[in-house]
Amino acid sequence: MVLLVPELTFLTGLSDLRKNSRMLKEVMWEMIQSPQQHYQRLTSLLCRIRDTPEASRELERWGLCLDTDIYRTQGHILPVERINLRHRSFLPAEDLGWHREVTKEVPIAVISVNSWLLIYPKRLQHLAKDLLAAMRSSCGAMGMQVGQPTVQELRDDRIETYVRSIQSSLGSQDKVQLLLCIIPGGRDDVYGAIKKLCCVQAPVPSQVINAQSLTGHPGKIRSVVQKVLLQINCKLGGQLWGVDIPL
Known about the structure:
The chain is α/β, with parallel strands linked by helices. Helix content is 42%, strand content 11%. It is extended.
């Protein structure tokens, strides 16, 4: 038995914040800071400690002295690696991201999706329609071909309904490249059941999309669908990009 002292424990994680997207964005903004922003915040904190009499007295009581600048050491900045696609290569921007390039160019190796299943509950049929339209409009620029799926519309969003439908659909199809499911937001139990079925019991590449990620303005949905297509290409054996680092 492990007994934890309440005064010495701290709550971790963001489980309750996921329902509050605005607060979650603010937390993520605080966490994702550039090195220069980290430096400015730390030096500002050190100056506040120095200029606050109560804090200075507390440090003196402990025999501590904090420098107002951060310890400096010499470092090296490595050259930026060139990212290679099928027809061209480029250097990433300062944020070291290249999502925009890989969604507008043809990857090194592309897998066409011809035999696949789309499963969703009836109340999310409008999202399924928007998803299909966005996939068709985005796949061409990425060199992908996405065929017409076999659609299975569920009467409800219970775990048993998803599992039975997936098992029935997989059993009636000769070869399924991909299973794509749309699930209601906040249903981790449904996600876990689908992944267990598709990874253990009836192995097939699967992609599960949270319905909340498909709601919003068209630009947001298009960005989500582009990321989904990149994931699907990788799961089916495709290769998105490469670098020139020798083995």
